[in-house]
Amino acid sequence: MWINNCHNCHNFLAAGLAVWKILRNFAAVLKITTLMNSNELTPARMHDLLKRNVFSDIDLERVASMDADQRRELKLSQIDKMLGMGPYAAVLNWYLSQFVDDDNQRRTENPLYDEEDTPLVAWYLEVAELGYALSYCKAFCLDLLAPGFQMDTDDLRQQFTIDNQQLIDWLQQTPYRRVAAMVAKILIRVELDRVVGHNDAVQDYYAESSATDEIDPQGIDNADKFINDAIEVLTEMKQHAERGRQLGLNDEQMRVVDLLWSWVPHDYPEDYVVTAKEVIEVVDRALPAKTVIRSRKGFKMFYDQLIPQLVQVIEKHDVPVDLTDRYNLTMGYMEDWLYSKYSGGIVLDE
User: Fold this and answer.
1) pTM of the predicted model as reported, rounded to 2 decimal places
2) pLDDT by residue (tens digit) across 206-236?
């Protein structure tokens, strides 16, 4: 009875905390959102609302005389401040909603829409450009953060990797800790997009990390912890892949070693490496010709015929994997890999 009461109390407190967060989030923007409901909103009133509710600590008249570096630093400091003004980036998201929609298209109803050529409104839009990328976890050109970033590819997402030491240094050194946390979140998103469907064990490893949790960057401690966690987990997986390449393994061979081991990282035991290579050879020989129409029914037949052969390979090398239990983790990873091999990345019909 006592245990049940404690459990119920815990659930009650958790629910209360969730409601409190929602109410606090709402209160953080209630004042300025209410002010924006006026049908008499003029450019002058819009400037005044932004000044009083977002940019109260700076002299906006100075923006016109600033050089590019000064405008960038002011932009970063103000976005960082907005991230700290309310939970879960509530104030930044309100600011964005005044200038762009969810697709990052300019809001024509904003009374400043026709004043984008003025220095101040142009700066407002610069703030919205970076703010949108951070809030929606979108890759962007890194010169929005600082000058001197090397751009080796036209794909903006390829800048957001643990291999970009310039960016990692910036994350660790910038005074704009909340902005840095949001940038670290983009690194995690890019990496997750890369591994999903390509390596289930690595994907699950990321899922177990706090770096994939939703972040509230309002508190500096939260932001710093998220940055450190993100760099740590990305570095671990980078080192894991580097170790595999040192052994001469390609991505598929590493994936099969990972699924046989059922977890990462590991040190690629020799018996697992040998087994993985032979498993891939067996599977490649069993794949139907490219002219054969793939289907889910066909995959089931392919899978059922193949598993006994894989059992023989795995038992021969004394790798402790039970392929007769379709519900263990390794078998889940194995089935996903075999499906991707059979289907060629195509969603199969019945």
Assistant:
1) 0.86
2) 999 888 888 888 899 999 999 999 999 999 9
Q: Per this entry, what is the length of the chain?
A: 350
| Number of C-beta neighbours around residue 13 at 10 A | 10
Q: Which residues contact 309 (CB under 8 A, 6 or more apart)?
A: 282, 286
User: CA 176, CA 173: separation in Å to the nearest integer?
Assistant: 9
Residues linked to residue 106 through DSSP beta bridges, in sequence order:
100
**Residues 273/253, Cβ–Cβ less than 8 Å:** yes
